[in-house]
User: Fold these one by one.
Assistant:
Number 1:
Amino acid sequence: MNNKPIIYAHRGSSAYAPENTEAAFVRALEMQAGGIEIDVHLSKDGRVVICHDEKVDRVSNGTGYIKDLTLKELKTLDFGAWFSDEFIGESILTLEELLEMLSDWDGILNIELKQGPLQYEGLEAKVVNILHKLKRVDSTIISSFNHYSLRAIKELEPSLKIGLLYVGGLVEPWKYAKYVGAEAIHPVFYSLVPSVIHECRENGIIVNAWTADKPEHIQALALGGVHGIITNVPDVAIKLTSQML
Ligand code: G3P
Ligand code: MG
């Protein structure tokens, strides 16, 4: 029998609170998620901030690109009201603020670098510096669809784990992971086949699948032997996986 997968709260517990906000992260902690996934960008004044999209329009009452707004300007926006009135007043968090908030938490933080379609010069170095400053290098995995960005992370800090995000059915991705120097692959869950999970395990490559919310998908991934499941409903995934394994 495989070990129980680590359940990562995708953008926090984002089915229950506005994604990538303190409220969503607090709920992830309350649900005892073993991991939390976040997305990061750089503000106009070079601060690492947590948000999924390049623009603030969908998840706040503001408009425009994060790269064109200073942290002070971003902090004037409401990032909770779009989700429901209960969350009016949520503001964007910097990576430092989240790490301070998680200082007593022993879970794994998965930081996804949003390095495309926009490119943020210096994002990798800033993230590495913040992780060093707040002593979170050992319990973090950096992921990105931009694998050049992950290579840059490895050059800056070889001990930091990296996970290769991708969509689609790659052939022998464990070989590619080794070639790039990655500890993990982060495939979209529906592209995974049992042989890939098996070979990754044989080759010491971690498999963290995203983003599975339906019980049947969560169960199939857990039975298939993935190391991590990234989900918007960590409470559901924790309950299901604790019952079955
Ligand atoms: O890291 C897994 C997942 O978050 C990747 O896609 O668009 O939700 O950031 P996205
Ligand atoms: Mg993400």
Note: The chain has one domain: 6-41+106-244.
Number 2:
Amino acid sequence: MKTLRFTTLPGDGIGPEVMDIALEVLKKLGTLHGFSIETSNHDVGGIGIDNHGQALPESTLAACREVDAILFGSVGGPKWENLPPKEQPERAALLPIRKAFELFANLRPGNLYPELSDLSPLRPDTVANGIDTLCVRELTGGIYFGQPKETKTLENGEKQAIDTMVYRTSEIERITELAITAATLREGRICSVDKANVLETSVLWRDTVINCVQKHNPDIELSHMYVDNAAMQLVRDPNQFDVLLTENMFGDILSDELAVICGSLGMLASASLGTQKNSLNLPFGLYEPAGGTAPDIAGKGLANPCAQVLSAALMLRYSFGLEKEANSVENAVKETIRSGLRTGDIAQGADSVGTAEMGQAIIDRLK
Ligand code: IPM
Ligand code: MG
């Protein structure tokens, strides 16, 4: 029997409760499809700071190096909010783990099921049939990591801060290749987002994307859009986009915009894929829900487990090559929503159920 080896990093807030559901889903799926799971649990984020003095403890990193994928929960919360920005759990855990495993590609599906279209802040006629787009964000380059990155005091006593936006051709090529693969499995359309009217990095970005699509798959319908226009077009008509391809900071902003127009953060999964192959010769990856730690409802059994469960489905697909099994999980979530069951975040004031009941409903619908 096949054994799936991954670490679970539940983190803070609702992370542990929704992680439990995702593991139950995987265990049940394993009995139906003939695999078992071997996991180990490790601290990350605020709980890492509390237990080890570090948001990303060395022991957590070491455990992740031994496995084929990371199933991540969420990090941060009010308890750690007053730490200096560099030590905040989100930044001090996520940025180094992305760098450590060179997780250069962040896939954020923007999905809104038609049954939940009322949750979107967009006009009903715009989203009546739901939303289905994919944001592909470069994750280890650009202004997040470029050097110099510093704050210094000038001779006149004034402070000056610098962040540097840098891209190399090879960094743009590898994310474009991934976007091409993703688009080929979808409608074959890529809209590359940049600010080529102002930024040097964007001029290189655009040229490289054009060359790369020409070289790898000229059948892709490629378009380009300035980021300010893209922000506007996303609220005007999100379904005009099949795959949105963009650099790190633009992707950070646009993927949150996409998330809110999809109605609930509790429904959105993400995958961050690395340059390394795992022991199955598939991409090593980190899989995490898009929503945060929801400290207001943490520990109350009210959180929506769907995003964590859907993140586990992405892990099955990309890091374990289990497409049929991933589909089974995604369909079970879809059918649970179709059946009318809702957690508080998606109930719009109507009756709602807790984390456990929602989880059980998903498990009951696995095929
Ligand atoms: C995200 C987050 C992170 C980012 C923060 C917490 C560092 O906003 O994953 O989108 O900016 O990448
Ligand atoms: Mg963000």
Note: The chain has two domains: 1-103+265-367, 121-261.
